[in-house]
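Quarterly update from the structural biology core.
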Amino acid sequence: QVRLAESGGGSVQAGGSLRFSCAASEIGLGILGLAWHRQTPKNERELVASMSGRGRTTYGDSVKGRFAISRNSAEKTMYLQMNNLKPEDTATYYCMMTIDHDVGYHDYWGQGIQVTVSS
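Predicted structure, tokenized:
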């Protein structure tokens, strides 16, 4: 059973930075895709950033130029660097990995990590 463990959340003032990490317990035959999602206090869920297995990245419009997704394959870990944080970035952030197995691929989710940005 694959488990994703997130770390790095917390509280920060507007303009500050945070870095999340998300480590997989194992990655089967390999990682097909990575993503960070968030759920706001208004229960709105949005895709923050994603990375394909080949490294192609996409970002939500609200975070372009401020957030960066990355991965360290050797450590089975993905990251989200968040700069110039704004109060509207306050949310619970979830990592997601699509992992390939010999019986097919499956999406796995982290437990969620809270970020609070104060003005």
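The first strand starts at residue 4 and ends at 7.
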